[in-house]
């Protein structure tokens, strides 16, 4: 997830606990939890929406 955020222009801003905040130059923000294992589907969809892209674009970016 962090790789995709960086490829889309998001820059690491700060972290608190296991959550990392990334900010885009246009002002958008996305919080990505840094946990081992798989990400639940609803959480993944929320992160993709916060990145401002579609699921198809996410799949192409990965």
CATH architecture: 2-Layer Sandwich
Q: Tell me the CATH superfamily.
A: Hypothetical protein
Give the helix proportion (percent range): 25-40%
Query: Quick one: CATH class?
Result: Alpha Beta
Q: Assembly state here?
A: single chain
- For this structure, the CATH topology is Metal Transport, Frataxin, Chain A
Number of helices: 3
How would you characterize the largest beta sheet? 3 strands, antiparallel
Strand fraction band? 25-35%
- Strand arrangement across the biggest beta sheet: 1-2-3
Tell me the overall shape. Answer: globular
Computed Rg = 11 Å
The low-confidence runs, each spanning 5 or more residues with pLDDT under 50, are none
User: In total, how many domains does the architecture comprise?
Assistant: 1
| Element string (H = helix, E = strand) | HEEEHH
Distance between the termini: 8 Å
Structure classification:
alpha+beta
Number of DSSP strand runs: 3
Mean pLDDT: 94
């Amino acid at each position: 997830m962090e790789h995709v955020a960086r490829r889309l222009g998001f820059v690491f801003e700060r972290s608190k606990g296991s959550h990392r905040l990334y900010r885009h130059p246009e002002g958008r923000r996305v919080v990505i939890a840094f946990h081992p294992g798989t990400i639940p589907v609803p959480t993944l969809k929320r992160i993709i929406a916060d990145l401002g892209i579609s699921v198809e674009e996410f799949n192409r970016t990965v």
